[in-house]
Amino acid sequence: MRTIDWVNGAVEIIDQTALPGEERVLRLHTVGELIAAIQSLAVRGAPALGVAGAFGVALAARIHVDDPAALAVAVQKVETARPTAVNLARGAQRAAALIPRGPEAVLAEACAVRDEEIAASAAMARLGADLVDELCGAPPRLLTHCNTGALAAVTVGTALGVVGELHQRGRLAGVIASETRPLLQGARLTSWELTRWGIEHRVAVDSAGPFLMARGEVDAVILGADRICANGDVINKIGTYSHALGARRAGIPFVVVAPESTVDHDTPSGAHVEIEDRGAAEVTAWGEAVNLAFDITPFDLVTAIVTDRRVIRVDRGEKP
């Protein structure tokens, strides 16, 4: 299953807003359609957004081949469709660098971004499973947050890819998936993917995670990231910080799994990252709301960061 792909001149995505009730594929022919899919979370997850950014520029390069000004505007709109995940802008910029060579070169670069993310997922699954085995010893009971499977990363996934690898090795004792706002991505998407993989699991309300750790029901927390700053601060789905605090109090590992494309050496710390607020409409119909999509987990609460190339032991002073 690929979350996002280029098929016969259009971008095809699995509509994540329809899951788990319906497995629906959307064909996106225009930049506007792609941006709408990104902003509605029909396609989401940092690695998948990087591919979406690249494919968005490929669409723009074909549509505006004879209009450089319109093409530049379209590229900028793709880059800024959502502000927090670094992969989106990076994927768009990487494809845009090939614009002088023509639309086919842009598309080839976008497909290369896709293929690299697919390879990265497989590598992260292996490295992450090895690390969790080392940290936990016995098969662990893992808590994961948001959705970090194939839906977020084209295939396999980041943190959930590690969960799947541990399951295949017979080294997994259980999984708790937090429900995760916005749009209950854990309860809807992670649970759907775990069910497809035949992995038994429980869904927990977001606020229950730290208490479950305190009761000894979790051996490690494993989740993804939308941006990893130069100092090791982790930008991830809202609720991540609470789980990190709970893990520190319980004395259990807190492991972040994300591709190298998510490491942002140009951003010194989480204080320099714009945190998206999705507005009140997703939360309430009768008043104001704080509906942050992400939060910032300080590096000193992180045990390790696993990328497709390396394991960074933040607890030992290593930096991205």
Automatic annotation (TrEMBL):
NCBIfam families: eIF-2B_rel, PRK05720.1, salvage_mtnA. InterPro entries: IF-2B-related (IPR000649), IF-M1Pi (IPR005251), IF_2B-like_C (IPR042529), Initiation_fac_2B_a/b/d (IPR011559), M1Pi_N (IPR027363), NagB/RpiA_transferase-like (IPR037171). It comes from the Bacteria. One of its GO terms (molecular function) is translation initiation factor activity. Belongs to the eIF-2B alpha/beta/delta subunits family. Keywords: Initiation factor, Isomerase, Protein biosynthesis. This is Translation initiation factor 2B subunit I family (IF-2BI). It comes from Actinoplanes xinjiangensis. GO terms for biological process: L-methionine salvage from methylthioadenosine. It holds the Pfam family IF-2B.
